[in-house]
Amino acid sequence: MKKIDFSKEKMKDRFYKIKKFMIKHYVSFFKSVPLLFCFIVTSLINTLLLRIITVGNYWYFKPLLADLGMLFIFSAFMFLFMTDKRRKRYLVVMSLITSIICVIHSIYYTYYSSFASVSLLATSTFVVDVGDAVIQKVMKLQDFVYLWQPIFMFYLIYHLKKRNILLKAQSIFDKNYRKKSFVTLFCTGIVIFSLTCFSMTPTEWSRFGKMWNRESVLSSFGVYTYQVNDIFQSIEPKINNLFGHDKALKNVVDYYSANDRTAVKNEYTDIFKGKNLLVIHAESLQTVAIDRKFEGKEVTPFLNKMVRESIYFDNFYSEVGVGTSSDAEFTFSTSLMPSNSGTVFVNYFDRKYSTIQKQFKKSNYYVFSMHANTGDFWNRATMHENMGYDKFFSKSSYDINETIGLGLSDKAFFKQSVPMIQDIMNKEKRPFYGLLITLTNHTPWSDLKLMDEFPTTWTVDVNGNKVTSDYINETTIGDYFRSVHYSDQALEQLINDLDKVGILDNTVVAIYGDHDARIGKKYYNMLYNYDPYTGEVKTEDDEGYIDYNDYMYELDRKVPFIIWTKNHKYTKKVSEAAGMIDAFPTLANMFGVDMGKYQLGHDIFSLKSGENTVVFTDGSYVTNKIYYDGQNGEIYSIDGKPTTEEYVNNRAKYADEIIDVSNDIITYHLIKEMDNKEK
Ligand code: GP9
Ligand code: MN
User: Fold this and answer.
1) Strand, helix or coil at 605?
2) Which residue has its alpha carbon closest to ligand 1 atom 3?
3) Burial (Cβ within 10 Å: 0-12, 13-18, ≥19) of residue 118
């Protein structure tokens, strides 16, 4: 057998020949279909634009190659169409689809720092309800830049047609040629895509498989591969169910058998046994507002007093995904992480969950929820029943006599809720677990007319003259603080009204901020770096400049968690890093209620200091020591002390585990199955 010459010259020669063939072949091919060439190039530019505007990794070659491969595959299908008209139409439709996908991801990224999923289509109806917020606070002109591509394609078709270029090419599109072109393009696409796949790291692949670190998946695989994978993973859970069930069940069972969840007694055990529990879900209430003053006036005078009379978790984080309020309810009530494909309340409302509501019911509590928005918002009417609420009082239970933003004002909501709670107490004559979900402090904070003025200006003394500068007044963050000031007044009104009718005598009030308000980082930079003497925002050259980096921004997303009683018997500031999934175990211990078997969070008072790891849906986490960025593996030191790799990796592994276990339980309906097995 003739020996193949692999000498350098020979190989170089072969490579040169292939290159020459390829170029000749592809150049002549694309010369015959200029429109297709333009479609591929312009769509590729759009993918680059999307990564420039969102994740910023525009130099990274993998997503570019992956998108190119996908575009070749998409384009191949053009040759299935017999007529030129239909081929042109296909390219225009594809241009519209691909550019609209970019627009949606771009808008979505502004609000969620993540990328959209078709599994959220079911949730999109709610976007209409919060339309103002999206238009005023989320949508930016830059998010529509991608539409240049279909417009350009339209112009091109018109222009080429006028110069008769398209028709001239028409003649060569016989069946044979179309088949050859389809195969060439399709195979080229597959080759480019496979080469890119070979370059992916195991981490990139595991994230691709799990699809919960969406930012990272799109940053590595490009927008088109991301979207195809998302469609597959969203539309075909049955496929997953078929293939993934057993692996998921084993993963979950192994996790629970390896991690003992037995409740540990501590100084807070049973302190509130038999008392009522009134939980306030405070919309978009952030810790950054507490103890903050403008012009010497407190943003939250009532909460500032309350946190000193209560057990106050001042290093507490929400762990929501795209389900925002509904995810806050879910994580608080089940001590599980939210779903990473869609939302539990909308996509997985029919699963069995072990909830704080059901556990309190087992202790003979009457369990109710109140929220003056439509019952089907976030599918609450259905999900609350599934969570174990005896009754959900939604919009139809209220007299919508005063509205702010999305609906009934919090002051009116609270005013009408107090007598309803009284009725429940008189009728039920047993302890209650109640949830009040507020609404007024919801973005975009533009309907402020019913709120007291709360100027967030800054007055300084300049040579004996009082000079007032705008500071953050009438900016998004300024309006937010004014809205929080209103929420604080509404809370004070509620507590006073509850007290007047004696409800507080035997009631514990727990308040949690459901998630951060998603205010852009630039506004925080303004908050910390504004110079009232120049009226400018300081830069690194200015004295006293604070380098407000992405991690400080993440840490500022804290929300308050407050456990308060009228007699202020238990007052403690808890600065241990804690998260929403820790609320259930912590409260269950205090109320002497059995926690059930599936919670993943911890009773904060049963942990040693620094032991807790607060996990976020994209695999990032925070402890007392560090913030770990799940996106790029970077760490940011919080305590300024050195950290070992082992410390970082163990907790990153833990983060992956509890996200996986939660998603497996939710996707594969495992609690019902595991409970049945135990019977
Ligand atoms: C809607 C309210 C707000 O009823 O709970 O939900 P969000 O937009 O924050 O998820
Ligand atoms: Mn919310």
Assistant:
1) helix
2) 325
3) middle
Instruction: Compute the residue count for the chain.
Output: 679
> Hey, what long-range contacts does 663-666 have (CB within 8 A, 24 or more apart)?
663/210, 663/212, 663/337, 663/339, 663/340, 663/341, 664/244, 664/248, 664/249, 664/251, 664/252, 665/252, 665/336, 665/351, 665/598, 666/336, 666/339, 666/344, 666/348, 666/351
Residue 283 CA to ligand 2 centre (angstroms)? 5
Chain center to CA of 192: 32
CB of 318 shorter than 6 A to ligand 1: no
Phi, psi of 581 (to 5 degrees): -75, -10
Residue-wise pLDDT tens digits, 101-138: 999 999 888 766 778 887 665 555 555 555 666 665 56
Contact 628, 635 (CB under 8 A): yes
To test the pocket of ligand 1, the residue of 393, 400, 406 to mutate (highest count of ligand atoms within 8 Å of its CB) is 406
Give per-residue pLDDT as tens, 523-562.
999 999 999 999 999 999 999 999 999 999 999 999 999 9
Asked if residue 287 has pLDDT above 70, the reply is yes
pTM: 0.83
Give the tokens for residue 323. 């389900």
285 CA to centre of ligand 2 in angstroms: 9
